[in-house]
Design a protein that fits this description.
Elements lengths: L2 E2 L10 E8 L5 H13 L5 E9 L3 E9 L4 E2 L15 H12 L3 E7 L7 H7 L16 E5 L6 H11 L3 E5 L7 H16 L7 E5 L8 H4 L3 E3 L5 H23 L1
Parallel strand pairs: 6-7, 6-8, 8-9, 9-10
Antiparallel strand pairs: 1-5, 2-4, 3-4
Helix pairs in contact: 2-7
This protein binds cobalamin (B12).
Amino acid sequence: MTILRPYGDTTGDGMVQVSFTLPMPHSKTAEGAAAQLAGKMGIDPAMVVHAKPMGPDFTFFVVYGRVNHLVDTSKVQVVERDYPLLTPKEVNLAVKRGLRRKLVVVGACIGSDAHTVGIDAILNIKGFAGEKGLEYYGEVKVVNLGAQVAVPQLVARAQEEGADAVLVSQVVTQRDAHLLNTKEMSAAFREAYPADKRPLLIVGGPRFDESMAAELGVDRVFARGTTPGEVASYLTDAIVTRRAARAGAGA
Ligand code: B12
């Protein structure tokens, strides 16, 4: 079955729940405005099940109601993982055999973004979701530049360290800062490096669309819930395995 309808109280009843904030004080009129908006979104009937003042001038709403839309799961497009998941031991072994030196990773939050928890989850030894971060991998050298790093500074450090991969985190999305900063970063790397010497460019953050890599000029986008093991496995596949395959094909 590929055609589905949302489920609320009974199978296929089409019930959904949405939340949003309107810039008006809480009142009966505000609740009516929330119901009107939900109606325009195709929710019919729309029930305002929660309304809470957010300071004197805003109100937060939760609306519950029915939509008539269907989803066709056969038409869904997502970026599937196209590399094998490896253990830290397997990553270390592959790097040792394939590169014969440590794999160098330079990471940072760029622009004015100071949200370092995400990049630290991937890089720091303590890791995330029960997995150790890349610092734990003996064959990976991690240079974590931290928050609010300017793009020229990132490029310079990547060159200095001989980075195989540059890992950038962007959490703030206001005015599309994450997209603009990423494009600025990828353009700077393309300018600073010959095409065949450029490090792998990876960007991550909770609100990225994984299918946007080409548009952003990066090699891979990682979204919310990413684990260090996934990143280590991807790096191994992209930098060690595929490079060896290319060398083999050329020989
Ligand atoms: C903690 C936090 C802060 C802390 C940050 C501390 C720190 N050192 O990081 C402080 C208090 C400093 C802060 C400040 C601000 N914050 Co804040 N913050 C948060 C909060 C609560 C949690 C973020 C977090 O740590 N998540 C946990 C990590 C593990 O998850 P993650 O970042 O998604 O990372 C995972 C993946 O995305 C991925 N990933 C992330 N980066 C990368 C990079 C790579 C290379 C890879 C492979 C993967 C990857 O892997 C990670 C593990 O799975 C969020 C709300 C929320 N609940 O998410 C708001 C939030 C991000 N903050 C927000 C805002 C607005 C701000 C401020 C502007 C507030 C203000 N007015 O001052 C400032 C901005 C400061 C700045 N200059 O950046 C907004 C952003 C809104 C938007 N649309 O952009 C949020 C969403 C809150 C909200 N709902 O309004 N914040």
